[in-house]
Design goal:
By secondary structure, this protein is α+β, with helices and mostly antiparallel strands. It has five helices and eleven strands. The strands form three sheets. Strands 5-6-11-7-8-9-10 form a seven-stranded antiparallel β-sheet, with no helix packed on it. The mean pLDDT is 80.
Length: 204
């Protein structure tokens, strides 16, 4: 059940108070901190948040409010999202997206089969994957022709390349750098470890 705007404000006030003081606020402190008219108004909001499982409270106890698991899940989800403000062109400017959307990193990080590697070298610069970038990959032992994969070759060399099979049963791991030669190996000597999902680059 969704929170009203005021309920969210009360919940955020409680969370910030607990983070700062390491104990929960009293009803009087909530009322004063949020300029609420009366303790009855505080009680109404607390009861609603309790019913929606965003917090729990002890009966007839001072400072008995505790943040619930549902609040923790919602907060974690917010940490894994950034606003998606629209599209941007490399040439003429474009308008920002008026819709309130978010890019969810949990689509990647929430999957136990996702792992990251730091890129070393310039073999994939044609695919805009540069030295020092981080790549997110999905664990898999299978790949389709043309997919970018992390592959273990002959048990000792791990490399990020485009994967291709040939008619003779060999595998070609193709760099996207014209100055580098592909790696050709027998299919049984190549172990696919992951399929590329995303590329992350830090500029500072």
């Amino acid at each position: 059940m969704a929170l009203t705007k005021r309920q969210k404000q009360v919940l955020d006030f409680i969370a910030e108070f607990v983070e700062k003081h390491e104990y929960s606020p009293s009803y009087d402190e909530i009322a004063k901190g949020m300029n609420l008219a009366s303790l009855a108004t505080v009680h109404k909001h607390i009861s609603a948040l309790d019913a929606k499982q965003y917090l729990t409270r002890g009966a007839n106890q001072s400072r008995s409010i505790e943040l619930g698991a549902k609040y923790g899940r919602a907060r974690q989800q917010r940490r894994e999202e950034v606003p998606l403000a629209g599209r941007i062109a490399a040439g003429a400017p474009v308008e920002a997206d008026e819709q309130r959307r978010t890019l969810k990193f949990s689509d990647f990080t929430g999957n136990a089969e996702t792992f990251a590697l730091e890129v070393r070298g310039d073999s994939m610069i044609g695919d805009h994957i540069c030295d020092g970038d981080f790549v997110l990959l999905e664990k898999t032992a299978e790949a389709r022709d043309g997919e970018i994969v992390a592959a273990l070759v002959e048990g000792y060399e791990t490399t990020l390349k485009r994967f291709y099979r040939d008619a003779e049963g060999n595998v070609r791991l193709q760099p996207s750098n014209p100055e580098m030669d592909p790696i050709v190996a027998r299919l049984e000597d190549v172990q696919i470890q992951g399929r590329l999902l995303a590329v992350l680059r830090k500029y500072r």
